[in-house]
Amino acid sequence: MKIFTVIGARPQFIKAAVVSRALKAHRPDVREVLVHTGQHFDENMSDVFFNELDIPHPNHNLGIGGGTHGQNTGRMIERLEALMIEEAPDQVMVYGDTDSTLAAALAAAKLHVPVVHVEAGLRSFNPSMPEEINRVLTDHLATQLFAPTESARLNLHDAGISPEKIHVVGDVMYDAALLYKGRSRKPIWFDALEMACAEFVLCTIHRAENADHRNRMKGILNGLENAARPVILPLHPRTRKNLQSMGLNIPKNVHVVTPVGYLEMIWLELNCYCVVTDSGGVQKEAYFHGKPCVTLRDETEWTELVFAGWNVLAPPNKSGALEAAIESAWDKTSELTQLYGDGNAATKIALAIDVG
Question: What is the dihedral of CA 254, 257, 261, 265, to 10 degrees?
Answer without folding.
Answer: -20
